[in-house]
Amino acid sequence: MAAILEFLKRAKPVYDMVYKTTMLICKLLLVADIIIMTWVVIARYLTFFPAPNWGEEVILTLMAYMSVLSASLAIRRNAHIRMTTFDRYLPVSLVKSLDLLSDLFVMGLALVMLVVGWKYATGIGAKGTYISMPWLSKTWMYMPIPLAGVAMIFFEIERLVIDVEHILDKNYVPDLGFELDEKKEDK
Hints:
Layout: H1 2-10, H2 12-45, H3 55-77, H4 92-122, H5 124-127, H6 139-142, H7 144-168
Helix pairs in contact: 2-3, 3-7, 4-7
């Protein structure tokens, strides 16, 4: 077990690179979204400036990619909203176990997103086309879900390794956002 954890800890530079690359992709998608949206809005008011007929569909598609990829980035930073109200009243070992359990559920969700999302993208998506771009398959509209599933699985593996390390480390106390009473700490 320790060898597996050590190997996965040495993969941190790979996780850093994938995180930075995904963040760059999200930023580029946001910039493209803003540019196209600005073009469409300006074209509504300036009649001599033609609006792209594909603008709104592309904006929605880019936004779908950006939102689900950025959600996978939040997994790595452990920044998703979660219920921690009762953590101050629970034993530290239980809080560590609940962190692991919640990450296992997120991993399950990511697997569902990958499998079912791929089925939809290659099934229903492959049968349709964009209205304004009949040459482009709607597979691209459904593809953010399995793509986000892959990204979530990738980052969730790192979270699970961190959770296991925290459980194995008897001296680790989760940052609960308050001072922990000596009575509530597991011995």
